[in-house]
Amino acid sequence: MNDFGSKIYAAAQKAVKEVYDLDVAEGQLVVETPQDTKLGDYSTSIAMKLSRTLRRNPMEIAEPLVAKLAELLPECESITVARPGFINFKLKASALTAVINDVIAAGDDYGKNESGKGKHLLLEWVSANPTGDLHCGHARNAAWGDCIARMMEASGWDVLREFYVNDAGNQIEKFAKSLEARYLQIIKGEDAVEFPEDGYHGDDIRELAQAFYDREGEKYLDCDQKTRHDALARFGLDNNIPKMQRDLARYGITYDQWFFESSLHESGYVADSVQALTDLGYTYEKDGALWLHTSRILAENLKKAGKSDADIEKLGLKDDVLRRANGFYTYFAADIAYHRNKFAVRGFDKVINVWGADHHGHVARLKGAMDALGLDGEHRLDIVLMQLVKLVRDGEIVRMSKRTGKAISLTDLLDEIPVDACRWFFNAKPETQMEFDLGLAVREDSENPVYYVQYAHARICTLLKNLAAEGYAVPKAAEADLSVLTGEEEKALIKQLAQYPAVVRLAARDYDPSFINRYLSELAAAFHKFYNACRIKGEAENVLLARLKLADTARAVLKNGMTLIGCSAPEKM
């Protein structure tokens, strides 16, 4: 692949090492496109960055580097030095046009790499409590996690997509009690049965209780409470989980596996995992409960990372309860067992979780527990944190659905906003709280980024169709004279196409789909500039066919990128 920027970067690193025996510090070396493209296709200021270290004039530093770079970069027509010390790279025409052939040859695989080949990854995301509807925060988590899965697959990883169903513990008991109160109110009257203050007050609970009554009548009125709770919880979960699956599928998201927390308890694996920590000396009993030496585990890890005892003490590290005095295991114990299962039982090389930012304090604790179990949580478990979402319309925060009058669920959002727009807009940086502009998401103009990119793809498809009607088909590589593509807009578009594989690698490395979004916006802009500056129809046939080939190549990469983030690439708009 002709990822020129990356090639020049790597060559410059090597040249500095071989000529001056220096390792380039991060941030020192930048490869960019010069403002005046007449100077070259790429440029670096590394000679100026090294002048202080070497105590020499940047022009003097640059000259031997240029000689070495000429050996390392045969795709460059020239490598020159411009005052006060810029090194400029001009690519051969053949190197640029080879990009087009690379894209066509690779097809749908253009941009993919094998950095994760042979490695198995479990990606767990959303994993919302099955006690209610998916909401807008889940919508962001869902889009981001699905994109990460796609990017990791594009980097060669064998990815298993998993939803962890919290069908045990306090939230399920609260769910059952809430359903029980509404069920008994249907039978006895609303004033006759007190609703639990900490229960789930939503209309969905009323609807589920009514559906349960419609099916079972008063069958569960006089039975023992546990039997009634189990029946109500089972009914509620059997309704809610399929609804979650349907809503996510509508959003373009499916899972390979739905893993149930209850299976960990029923199989005894939670108890076994806690016993494993006990056997390793990481637990103790206090006040009838069993505790994990979390503070000790984290302190040991921090010391390995170079932290002093004084700095560690300031953190106020605390231990965690694994088994309560009543004999019930905590959610943390179940989470330890779940992640132990991922590594020790199912043998995944890497595990990625996408969590809400409110779980920030849980990250180090869970990694530490994996470290204590000898499973290298520090390096094998990665957690991506998502911040909250604010829905905005006309500058005002929107909290309620216009259709239902309720808090906005994923279903409500998809009723109002196209799936493509939702998925695009939720690909903002995960560590920042985002504002989702509902008005912008439905606009059909260049201000809407997803529309802008999709329009570029549709524009090319229309061009191809119109020229095909006139007898001009996209030529095969060998049939097009690509050497005529020498204009600045043509070269800029080709260089943009060449960047895509590197962008995919970076996005996968950082678990950050927004790399793809930004790239696609830049590619669409480069295409529109090319299209407006370089006439296709009416040109000499060799120029027409070459430009047609370039346009089709841009179409292919736009489609690959949109597919990678779970958006469509329409052929007409």
Overview of this structure, please?
- This protein has 573 residues and is of the alpha/beta class.
- The chain folds into four domains: 4-91, Gyrase A, domain 2 (2-Layer Sandwich); 170-252, no CATH class; 267-386, Rossmann fold; 445-564, Isoleucyl-tRNA Synthetase, Domain 1 (Orthogonal Bundle).
- 53% of the residues lie in helices and 13% in strands.
- It is built from 22 helices and 15 strands.
- It has a five-stranded parallel beta sheet, with helices on both faces. Strands 1-2-4-3 form a four-stranded antiparallel beta sheet.
- A hairpin with a 2-residue loop joins strand 13 (389-393) and strand 14 (396-398).
- Helix 20 runs parallel beside helix 22 (541-564).
- The mean pLDDT is 94.
Helix fraction by DSSP (H/I, runs of at least 4)? 40-55%
Number of domain units: 4
What is the rounded distance between the termini? Answer: 32 Å
CA-atom Rg in angstroms? 29 Å
Spans where pLDDT lies below 50 across 5 or more residues: none
Beta strand count: 15
Using the alpha-carbon principal axes, give the shape: globular
- Arithmetic mean of pLDDT: 94
Q: What order do the strands of the largest sheet run in, or round the barrel if closed?
A: 7-6-5-11-12
Remind me, CATH topology of the largest domain? Answer: Rossmann fold
Which architecture of the largest domain does the CATH hierarchy give at level 2?
3-Layer(aba) Sandwich
Could you give a short account of the major beta sheet? 5 strands, parallel
CATH class of the largest domain: Alpha Beta
Structural class: alpha/beta
- The count of helical stretches stands at 22
- Classify the beta-strand content into a percent band: 5-15%
CATH superfamily of the largest domain: HUPs
